[in-house]
């Protein structure tokens, strides 16, 4: 047996070149006494120890890629692929059947998938003008609002109406006496007056300000009749008013007094005329 093996080796001649090993797959041989029984003589032996029966590959081992999803008419299409049992659509897990089709999928909104089209029949200029008018602040004063020109600035509009935009500049604060005397010595400073093109606005505002103020607060007719009855029967005796049978709300003497004072404050002339009429009627009775 030994001789035959030696003869076969001699017939083959010189040993052939060793198979090429890529630098990625080549690793340093393990140390003596490592797992696998002794140190490997070459990188090929080391690879065979790690994966017996698998020839060394010059390329790096790659894993099968997950099949890509493609959209067909707004739905997700999952190609059939072995080894895939679950997937995800925007973070939501899906289960797959035997053929690779999704078992349950969330439908997408109709407006999201529809392609946006440009409206050629819409008047953009009119829409922008309406949006500007809608977002613009509404002027509370009717006189200023009707005379307002939207093509001019705020300062120009107020100057044409005879109004001031900044009251600190229109009516400045008086300075110290020393500075005033120095200005008088230098001479009066001429200021440029703005041309008032809409004086009717200022006249309407002055006329409206001169009108007497309307009283928004009024008293109910029941309260007026209640106060008149108490004053007519008891005068200023508030304790007797509290014991009266018509004191339905069981008001205390102080509460009745406060109601009478409210009536005096709201209608002073009417209360005074009522008191004088009571005095005249008492004098006639006597």
UniProtKB/TrEMBL annotation:
Keywords noted in UniProt: Nucleus
Stored PANTHER family: HSPC111 PROTEIN-RELATED, NUCLEOLAR PROTEIN 16
Keyword Disulfide bond among record annotations: no
Basic residues bias (residue ranges): 62-76
Localization per record: Nucleus, Nucleolus
GO biological process terms held by the UniProt record: ribosomal large subunit biogenesis
Record field: compositional bias (Pro residues): 16-31
Short name of any one Pfam family annotated for the protein: Nop16
Family membership: Belongs to the NOP16 family.
Keyword Transcription carried by entry: no
Matches recorded under InterPro entries: Ribosome_biogenesis_Nop16
Region (Disordered): 1-79
Organism: Ornithorhynchus anatinus (Duckbill platypus)
GO cellular component term of the entry, any: nucleolus
Record protein name field: Nucleolar protein 16
């Amino acid at each position: 047996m030994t001789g035959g093996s030696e003869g076969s080796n001699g017939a083959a001649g010189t040993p052939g070149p060793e198979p090429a090993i890529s630098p990625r797959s080549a690793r340093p041989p393990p140390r003596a006494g490592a797992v696998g029984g002794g140190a490997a003589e070459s990188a090929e032996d080391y690879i065979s120890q790690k994966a017996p029966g698998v020839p060394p590959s010059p390329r790096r081992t790659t894993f099968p890629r997950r099949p890509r999803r493609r959209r067909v008419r707004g739905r997700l299409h999952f190609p059939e692929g072995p080894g895939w049992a679950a997937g995800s659509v925007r973070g939501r897990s899906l289960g797959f059947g035997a053929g690779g089709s999704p078992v349950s999928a969330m439908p997408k909104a109709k407006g999201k998938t529809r392609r946006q089209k440009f409206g050629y029949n819409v008047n953009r200029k009119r829409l922008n003008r309406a949006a500007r008018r809608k977002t613009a602040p509404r002027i509370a004063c009717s006189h200023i609002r009707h005379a307002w020109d939207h093509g001019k600035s705020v300062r120009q509009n107020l100057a044409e109406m005879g109004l001031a935009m900044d009251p600190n500049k229109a009516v400045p604060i008086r300075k110290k006496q020393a500075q005033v005397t120095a200005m008088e010595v230098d001479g009066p400073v001429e200021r440029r007056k703005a041309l008032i093109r809409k004086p009717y606005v200022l006249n309407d505002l002055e006329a409206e300000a001169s009108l007497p103020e309307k009283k928004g607060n009024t008293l109910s007719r029941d309260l007026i009749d209640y106060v008149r009855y108490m004053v007519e029967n008891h005068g200023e005796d508030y304790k007797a008013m509290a014991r009266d049978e018509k004191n339905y709300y069981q008001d205390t003497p102080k509460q009745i007094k406060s109601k009478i004072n409210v009536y005096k404050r709201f209608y002073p002339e009417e209360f005074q005329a009522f008191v004088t009429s009571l005095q005249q009627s008492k004098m006639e009775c006597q």
